Fold:
Amino acid sequence: MASPVIKSQPHDIVDLPAMHNANPKPPVSIALFLIGILGLFVFPLTRLYAIEHPVPASPLWLTYSGGDGPGAGKHVVLVAAEQEYRSEHSMPMLARLLAKHHGFHCTVLFSLNKDNEVDPTQKIKWDDKTVMHNIPGLEHLKHCDLVIWFSRLLSLPPDQLQHVYDYLDSGKPIIGIRTANHGFIDWDYKKDGKKVDFGVGVLGGAFRGHHGRWQQDSTRGIIIEENKDHPILKGVTDIWGTSDVYRTYKEDSSLPQDCLPLVNGQPLVGRKQDDAVNTELIPLPVAWVKTWTGNTGLTARVFHVTMGSAKDFQNEGLRRMTVNAAYWCLEMEAKIQERSSMDIVGPYNPPDSGFNYKKLNIVPQKPSYYQ
Structure:
């Protein structure tokens, strides 16, 4: 039987208080139904919005959406553009770690050849004056929160370099890894009308030579006692890597005064973690912090580490120091946890460093190969 339709008359007086008292609460079943509808439609949309990556997917770069974690909502761009230390392996590894364990959105940009392949075998302008490198996606530096830069002797077209220059004027932080301190050949950034070197001026030092035997010695990291309480060193122990120590200043000089050294590198005689100390070589700084102020007057935090081959990053101490540096650079040091996860996500068996590409089986690959 159909429910009767009750029509109110034009002059009916509706007693709202009486109606309210008659039905003080909606039936429980209706309330639960409404909550269910809310859960089906609103909550998933909120979650989708939270994990949406700020950079569109592309075959030219890699993106990793951040999950839950202290870095949620922050975007880190990592640049892998060198020919020796297998950054095409280490930067995606760091991106996966930062995204999964710490919540950061990450984008990895590469130096690509004419076939849009990641190609560490590309020559540099010192070997071929016609060389011009290409890093698609540098325009995304404009909206990221942090860049982790790992390049070596690049020659980029002016429009791509301009994205880097603009970033240096943005007041946003920078992490430079190993060869980043000699990351460019064609470089023309100026401040107050004077050319500023990316290594010396921005990062605090430039490559002046191998402090030890290249491809033969390794490095033991020694935390500097007076700076051991710096947030970047929280939970960091047992730093070691197969790459040798860089000298970044003249032998009769020292690290610039605006740099705070965190870790010294002691050369070892050999490439095993328990090899003996090379007593003929003193430790030199391999990790430090400083600030950088560009043309706009905005000041950024900077962390530079001269270790950082892909093999080096198999060491948890180096991974933790680098991830902690990302927090510190973003002024999030209060969120650094001594025992936060630094576990590698997915397989990670990078080739060794060097230029013997045939022996190491280094061949051009599409960016997706490193996903």
Summary: Residues 28-51 form the longest helix (24 residues). Residues 62-208+289-348+358-370 form a domain with the Rossmann fold fold (CATH 3.40.50). Residues 187 and 197 are 8 Å apart (CA to CA).
